[in-house]
């Protein structure tokens, strides 16, 4: 009998909203990415989700439906667990509105084989011609973390403890997943990537930003300055601080965010910012029914 084919690396997408965004990502994966792979999509709807579009051109795609929309981290975890259960050696989390201009998966796999100690690999994002790298976090983010190195690394840089990788394009091997653990799910939306990276920083596990990039416009699904984006961004940033700082620190950081909205004249965002501050101080997590 011929030998069983080797399990393939898997690309994970979390879908919510406009099916055309996810279809666009699937199409660039099918036409640009040369490395053999599977795709698993966590379909969070709204109903009927991707069942309303033709997925036949994407052979082997696995769609995991959950229209309760449990959040980005939960969708990533469910899809990744399905991929690893099927034998995938690695998973590439890609935002459903991202696009590829060049093949990237082979480079990610090659780097991971050369440097298995790395917890997470990320890529740059290109937005409107601007090249975006790691996310710089406030000074308190790096508390309890130390700088690490990856000897012999080429084609990328190791992140210092004050930076995190964007969840728009994150790659993890099975071994690194088992060391680091799954995505934090309690954030529902925004800052779960920063929280995951913070876990790696505190464990002394390297994070690497590669030179390659994906095309990605931030906030396509939720809106860059919508009430929901503002609420979750405020609450979850403060939740990260609450996990390592004092309650007065959280309150003062919240006031800083509120006054920044005020002096920028962003009047419509004052209420969701204040709600985010209150939710963080009250220890509220998960999805908020108002957003």
Give the end-to-end Cα distance, rounded to a whole number of Å.
55 Å
Question: What gyration radius follows from the Cα positions, in whole Å?
Answer: 19 Å
Largest sheet: 9 strands, mixed
**Count of individual beta strands:** 11
User: How much helix, percentage-wise, in residues?
Assistant: 25-40%
Could you report the average pLDDT, rounded to the nearest whole number?
Answer: 95
CATH class group of the largest domain: Alpha Beta
Low-confidence parts, pLDDT < 50 over ≥5 residues? none
What is the overall number of helices? 8
Summary tags:
291 residues; alpha/beta; Spore Coat Polysaccharide Biosynthesis Protein SpsA, Chain A; 2 domains; nine-stranded mixed sheet; two-stranded antiparallel sheet; globular
Model description:
The protein folds into 2 domains: 10-215, Spore Coat Polysaccharide Biosynthesis Protein SpsA, Chain A, CATH 3.90.550; 227-281. Strands 1, 2, 3, 4, 5, 6, 8, 10 and 11 form a 9-stranded mixed sheet that branches. A two-stranded antiparallel sheet has the order 7-9. The relative contact order is 0.14. The termini are far apart. The longest helix has 17 residues, at 247-263. The chain has helices at residues 19-32, 72-85, 105-114, 174-180, 192-202, 227-242, 247-263, 270-281; strands at residues 10-15, 38-43, 62-65, 90-94, 120-127, 130-132, 135-136, 156-158, 163-164, 169-173, 207-215. With 291 residues, it is an alpha/beta fold. The chain is globular. Helices cover 35% and strands 18% of the residues. The model has no long low-confidence stretch (mean pLDDT 95). It is built from 8 helices and 11 strands. α6 packs antiparallel against α7 and α7 (247-263) packs antiparallel against α8.
